[in-house]
Amino acid sequence: MEPQESAVQYSGGNNSQDEVSKNVSTPESSGCEQFYNKLCTGKLGIAMKVVDGIVLFWVIFIVGYVTGYYIHKCK
């Protein structure tokens, strides 16, 4: 593995808030990182989370319905 170059900058001054920034440069982002950045951030990320929540709701609803049907089924 090649070492990553990084730089940390500290700006003190007379401000009441201290600011620290760290920059890490990599030669190329991994596929997983690009996938995460595309689907989990921004407007598309919010839309994906909403869709995931709706799908999860319906999966739990259907599993509960089927389970309840077989548990309370009249003999």
UniProtKB/TrEMBL annotation:
The keyword S-adenosyl-L-methionine does not apply. Keywords: Membrane, Transmembrane, Transmembrane helix. The chain crosses the membrane at residues 53-71. The keyword Cell membrane does not apply. Residues 1-30 are annotated as: Disordered. This is Small integral membrane protein 1-like. Pfam families: DUF4731. It comes from Monodelphis domestica.
